[in-house]
Amino acid sequence: MNLARTSIILSVVSIVIVLTSACGTASAPATPTPIPTPIPLQVAPTLQVAPTLTPIPPSPTPLPTATFLPSRTNVPTVTFTPTANPKDLAQAAFAKALASLKTYRVEVPQENRYIAVQLPDRFLQEGADSVIKIGGTLWTASIKGYRIGTGTPPYFERADINWYKQQFAQAPQVVLLGPGTAEGVPCIGYSINLTLAKAEPPQTPGATPVISQVAVPIKIWFATTDGFPRRADIAAPLSLTVNFFDFNDYFTITPP
Predict the structure, then answer these.
(1) Burial category of 89 from C-beta neighbours within 10 Å (exposed 0-12, middle 13-18, buried 19 and up)
(2) What are the CA-CA distances from residue 151 to residues 15, 90, 157, 158, 163 (Å)?
(3) 8 A C-beta contact, residue 113 and residue 125
(4) Are the C-beta atoms of 220 and 240 separated by less than 8 Å?
């Protein structure tokens, strides 16, 4: 059994060898197809692009805190008051006093003189040498009674508030003296230089008197309480003090 199988196998191998030989003599062995060599890929190099740096702006300087002004509706109105002229102030003081002053009395210590005044134009010098002036008419006492004359004695002028008002109005300059007192009463004063004619007696008999102009400072003081004048100071060469008092006392000056 084994011998038979072996014979069969040998026969088959012989046939295969014969066939193989026959095929090899008939044609050259086939040239194997070459396997193409793979071309390496050309990889582009990666460009390293430097990033663009965006500069960081410097820290801004902090702005100062704004101070907001209040609304204009809250702004007070500023009124500029010009400095008042002393001359105007003095005239206003006279006007205030005369607005309510009807009667008063005057004392001149240097002349021992007392005068009653009834505005606007009645004067009575009280005492033994009584003199009355009403308007432009003058009565003077005498042994036989009264003599009638005209004119205005200077002492009546110095007792008249209207005379001072006129002199201060005509003066080129009025000086504000500021606060003061008269007989203990708080006052405010004004001053002027009044120009008067001064007559000097002649050196020889029969010669003409020498007339010269002299500046006489006059000060007047008004009470800050009621506005009435309290005192007038008249400098040299007169050197007189005129005191005002008994304001609006009831009396009447009538012809004799």
Answers:
(1) middle
(2) 196, 28, 11, 14, 15
(3) yes
(4) no
**CA terminus-to-terminus distance, the chain:** 210
Give residue-wise pLDDT tens across range 12-39. 445 544 444 444 444 444 555 555 555 5
Phi, psi of 168 (to 5 degrees): -70, -30
Q: How many helices (H) and strands (E) does the chain have?
A: 4, 11
Q: Between helices 86-100 and 161-170, what is the axis angle to 10°?
A: 160
**234 bridge partner residues:** 218, 240
Nearest-angstrom CA–CA distance, 168 and 249: 26
What's phi and psi for 49, nearest 5 deg?
Answer: -85, 120
Query: Is the whole-model pTM more than 0.70?
Result: no
pLDDT digits (tens, 9 = 90+) for 229-249: 999 999 988 899 999 999 999
Distance between CA atoms of residues 146 and 256, nearest Å: 8
Query: Cα(42)–Cα(233) distance, rounded to whole angstroms?
Result: 128
> Hey, where are the domains in the chain?
98-245
- Residues of the chain short of pLDDT 70, as ranges, are 1-81, 128, 143-144, 199, 207
Tokens representing 112 are 């021992």
Task: Write down how long the chain is.
Answer: 256
Kindly report the backbone phi and psi dihedral angles of residue 21, in degrees, each rounded to the nearest multiple of 5, phi listed first: -65, -45
CATH no., domain 98-245: 2.50.20.10
**DSSP one-letter code for 111:** G
